[in-house]
Design brief:
heterodimer; A: about 110 residues; mainly beta; six-stranded mixed sheet; about 0% helix; globular; B: mainly beta; four-stranded antiparallel sheet
Chain lengths: ~110, ~120
C-alpha cells in the first residue's frame, strides 16, 4: 500500500522567512496530493492540492511542487506570518478518487515574531 | 465551519467500556472517512464508506466497527476500550467526482476520547 513520509517533523522560522516541507510517497499510481493545515483544537483543512498532471501550483503565498519521477512533493510558504503556525499534513491518494487518503506524519511549523 | 458535525466533542470512559462516535457529513456528500489521531501523531486512516457501503479499510482494530446509515450519517463503534485507544477521532466527508467533487476531504472538529 501507499506510504507517505514527511520532513521535517518540526520547523521554526522567523516571521517573513520562507518555509519548505517535503513529502515522499511510494505508490506510483497515486495521482492526487493535497496539503492540510491543522490549527490547535480544530480539524485539518485543505490549503492547496496538486494533481499528477501538473508540476507546480501557486495560491498567493503558498505553492506546491510535484516531481512524479522522484515521487516527492513539497509545500512552500513565503513571507510567513504568525497565523501560519500550525501542523501541516501532506497526503497521497491512490487508485482513484475517494478510496484511501494516506497522510504523512505532519510538520509542526512555528513562525516566530 | 466545514459542515461536518461530530458528536460528542469529548468523551471520558473506563477501560473495557464501549462507545459510539457519530458523524454527520456535509449535505450531499456520499463519502465518509474515519481517522484516528493519537497525541502528537499523524492521521491514521481507519475506514471509508461510500453511500452506505464500505469502500476501504485501514489499520482498524477488530474491536472497532463502523457503519453508514441510509441518511448518510456514520457511526464508529469502539469496544473493549484500552488506554491506548485514547485519541482524537476525526470524521471527514467528500463529494464523489461523479457528483462534481474534487476529492477534497472536509473534516469535522473531532471527538476526543479519553480512556481511564
Amino acid at each position: 500500500g501507499e506510504n507517505v513520509e514527511q520532513h521535517p517533523s518540526t520547523l521554526s522560522v522567523q516571521e517573513g522567512d520562507s518555509a519548505v516541507i517535503k513529502c515522499t510517497y511510494s505508490d506510483s499510481a497515486s495521482n492526487y496530493f493535497p496539503w492540510y493545515k491543522q490549527e490547535l483544537g480544530k480539524g485539518p483543512q485543505l490549503i492547496i492540492d496538486i494533481r499528477s498532471n501538473v508540476g507546480e501550483k501557486k495560491d498567493q503565498r503558498i505553492a506546491v511542487t510535484l516531481n512524479k519521477t522522484a515521487k516527492h512533493f513539497s509545500l512552500h510558504i513565503t513571507e510567513t506570518q504568525p497565523e501560519d503556525s500550525a501542523v501541516y499534513f501532506c497526503a497521497a491518494l491512490s487508485r482513484g478518487y475517494g478510496q484511501n487518503f494516506v497522510f504523512g506524519p505532519g510538520t509542526r511549523l512555528s513562525v516566530l515574531p | 465551519d466545514s459542515g461536518v458535525t461530530q458528536t460528542p466533542k469529548h468523551l471520558i470512559t473506563a477501560t473495557g467500556q464501549r462507545v459510539t462516535l457519530r458523524c454527520s457529513p456535509r449535505s450531499g456528500d456520499l463519502s465518509v472517512y474515519w481517522y484516528q489521531q493519537s497525541l502528537d501523531q499523524g492521521l491514521q486512516f481507519l475506514i471509508h464508506y461510500y453511500n452506505g457501503e464500505e469502500r476501504a479499510k485501514g489499520n482498524i482494530l477488530e474491536r472497532f466497527s463502523a457503519q453508514q446509515f441510509p441518511d448518510l450519517h456514520s457511526e464508529l463503534n469502539l469496544s473493549s476500550l484500552e488506554l491506548g485507544d485514547s485519541a482524537l477521532y476525526f470524521c471527514a466527508s467528500s463529494l464523489h467526482p461523479g457528483q462534481g467533487g474534487t476529492g477534497e476531504l472536509f473534516f469535522g472538529e473531532g471527538s476526543r476520547l479519553t480512556v481511564l
